[in-house]
Fold each of these.
Amino acid sequence: MKRLRSTPLQLSVILIAVFTLFMTAGLGIAYVLIRDALGADVALRAEQVMQDLRAIPEPAERLERATEIVVASDPRSLMLRLELNGETVASVRTLPEGLIDAEDTGLPEPVADSYLVRHTDLAPGQLMVAVGRDSIAELNETFVAILGFALLPALLLTSAIGIVVVRRTSTRVEAIRRTLHALAGGELEARVGAPHPDTDLGDISRDLDRMAEAQEAATGALRQIGADIAHDLKTPIQRVAVRLERLGETELTEDARGLLDQTRDETSQIIATFESLLQIAQLEGGQGRDSFSAIDLAALVRDMAEIYEAAAEDAGVRLTCTITDPLPVIGDRHLLSRLIANLVENALRHAPGTDIHLSLAARTLSVRDGGAGILPEQREKVLRRLVRLEASRSTPGSGLGLAMVKAIADVHGAKLGLDDAAPGLVVTVAFPA
Amino acid sequence: MHILVIEDDPTTGDYIASGLRTEGHVVDLISNGRDGLIQAMSGTYDVMVLDRMVPDVDGMSILRTLRASKNPVPVLLLTALGGVEDRIDGLNAGADDYLTKPFAFGELSARLTALSRRPPPADEPTVLRAKDLEMNLLTRRVTRAGQLIDLQPREFALLEHLLRRKGRVQTRTMLLEGVWDIHFDPQTNVVESHMSRLRTKVDKPFDVTLIETVRGSGYRIVE
């Protein structure tokens, strides 16, 4: 279907159709005109012969003249028959081979179609003139020859040229389309590639490659900035952690020890938030795809359910999981386990004490809790970075859990949905087929 | 052990070096990539700690040069970047382990010990033992003092992981990576929950504790 939508193909087909139409119409008109002219010639010849013989009153002389006329003309193109008082006195003709001469019956039947036959009164006597339509039959042959030796090859040639042009342009159009698709999907190193022919399509592909180059450079710079920020921020955080650990090794009062522990907790929270922000930024920059492989999502969900089962039980929650068939997905195992973990932890944190259910059906992963849920108008909001609904301010968490889930889903081309589980929240992640 | 540490930040470098020296190791601390590369290529070390971002020659280049010259020394890569691709890049370049900054010294120490004492792959035991506990890897039976202990598959895997590294501390993240193949830090006490279940079966009915908690770092099976 895609090939049929190709513009060059459509143009070629239209062009060939128009060419064929005009050629056929031109030849047709020429044929009709020439045939009419030839027909008129044949009629004129018959008329001339009749006038010629009518002008001779003497039957004997008339016969002599008739013989002269026949001998002078092409032996197959003319037949004459003279009658006097109802009797054939002379039949002057040279019959085409294979025709039986039946003098009494006049003109043999099968010839009738190939001859123009005229009768006239000569007073005395009758004259029949039959002029061969050979020239018209030749005309037909000529036109068939024109069709076969000129029009058909021309048609084949134009079609062949059309196919080559369509192939060439559609390959380039397809290359451009594929590159755009790859770029849109985050494959920043995608290029149409040289050589760029000196055509409008060539210009477009060259410009596209230049644009992709610039985009890749910009993204690369952004990544470098991210790496630099990570390094420059993490080094001092590392120092703080080192000093806190050193401090912990010294003699401390009970109060100081408590403060130290709190500070440590806060530090690890800062680290976790920072780490998540960095990862989300990397995912949004398209990182992660390089490590994609075929994995069984069903097995992964089961594993994750098993990992969290004990922790959920300790929190007084039942974690159940209904999964039947294996579900092959192209993705990154670690990112997807992170996605499932974040959803389960979200449920544990924001819907405490309610059961959590994991299921997998129709390429869609669902995580359902029995908590307060999220109001429809706030659902879009919670997917944004660092957004935490007022009601959840008191609970721990960075506000990045769902944003990370969204980023991971996006990188996998999966669609994330938040819905009412009445009661509770159900988060769905629909993977592409 | 003779350990080479290539780390440009003096505070972190001193912290690693002094911590390792306290544990009785001989440590060479180098603060730039060029000297680090020369030292790494010329010296003989049991294990190396390599910061990914050091001046002059970056850690990844040092690592690639080492591996290109067929030097098999175990390398732990320290990095500020914790993304999936960064980790895979590091491992592909030939790192044996990967630790994201900031880290606790206990984590680093436990991982270095694990790296330096990798068992030869050919030597595959069928029965793991610790005191009166026996784990048969073929029949998947676990007994303690002759008593059969019924373990779930993951509990078995967790105990097996600890038994194979008897006497060595296994941190939370090492267990997450080794037993569950999880490479991020869950905000829920998943390891603690599984460990408490395992202990209920393995330690609670008996007088002597086998699985020991190491303050601030992790767990280990008593030798």
Amino acid sequence: MKYSYMPGCSLLTTARGYDVSARAVVRELGSELIELDDWNCCGANVIDSTSYLLSLALPARNLALAESENRELVTTCSSCYFNLFRASHLVSKDASLRDKLDQILAAAHLRYLGQRRVRHLLDVLVNDIGIKTVADRVVKKLTGLKVITYYGCQIARAHDEYDSPYLLSAVDSLIEAVGAESLHYLWKTRCCGSVLMTTERTVGLKLVTELLTATHGADCIVTVCPMCQMNLDAYQDEISVRLGARIRIPVLFITQLMGLAFGLSEKDILLEQNIVPAKGLLHRLEKAGERDYR
Amino acid sequence: MGEKAFELKREMLDHTFIDLVSPDRKKLLTCIQCGTCTASCPTAYAMDYTPRQLWRLIQFGLKKEVMSANSFWLCTACYACTAHCLRGIACTETMTTLRRTAMSLQVGNTGSMARFCEAFSETVRRHGRLNEIELMTTFFSKAKHMWAVGYSRLGITLWRKGRVSLGPSSLNVDRLEQIEAIYRKVEELESKR
């Protein structure tokens, strides 16, 4: 199946590994992500502090573009997903808001009819493609790999009709499908601090420290959000110094982990871009397995 | 977070305040102070007033106390409070409404987060997408931040890993006009109110 795809701004730069591995994994599973032409920033969780209408109009433009392409719109970024969902949801509920958004989009010669909803890649992987297809595609079972499944906050929460329950087991079921073990983790949907790491660093660092220190015994963290990956991956050295204890745990995107199990090369999933080295994760796993065997 | 004591005087109460900052006044008035929001909040510990305390102050109309608190600037918009609120109060949306109010009234601690939000919006207006390098340079110059040094180290790490792109990823020029048109129309509609 073909989907319209909006990678989101982070996936063009700091989270390129997510973009590249998502496209590769979906291709391997027989579907295709076709990038939406000239999609724009969804506003992240920032624009709504400056303007309420803008925080709905920016995602609404993408929804309008996707409608004209007549395919389902898929995104990989939690923030994009949340904002696109929020816009389509609020517009369907509130006629006066809908009128305002119609006016704003009309100024850009666009129209959003409200016929398209956004879908997260996880939803596509689990509900369209299916866990069985994923498991069947595995050539290198990740047996013995202990994974912390971290969903982050935005994908997990939102408005009254939000469809989180199945998404909140989606990553765990994918991890099991590739043969790895998802460990119990209390902070699965706890916020990583988001932009506080930039604006209020001490507060941001404390949140990430809490998340990281609870990952004891795991080989890696797996996440589905570009912001979470960045916050958990990029500050481990600084946190280690502050704690006086070394924390060093690779943080992978779910699609990178799936890519490994599908036998894709580390280059195919841009594993060299992870800050805490994730390269050689499988090699280390194999070596540890041999040692146990002896 | 703490127990701030102050003497309550009648003239401190502004009963129109709740309409200004709450997307849903009726629901906010039903807050029973159970504290589930505060218990769910990852940054409540650093707030002048916890979310629970903040709702109470808004109910009373204690505008100055609320607007000068750092609480809503520390909200990460993780929606944990909204998801858990037994009364169905739009807690997170109230936090962002408080930010917008503070920014438009130019009151309270409109510190680094406000500068960050402005810088973010400016770069999206210019390119249609977020350009991280431009965002950080604009933000650090606006906020006159001393942390810029610390961040340049992160920047170098990301650069070495190939996670920074120098050229801004912009939309095609004709599509950028749509973005500008959207910004203009939003400004027009919001100034009417």
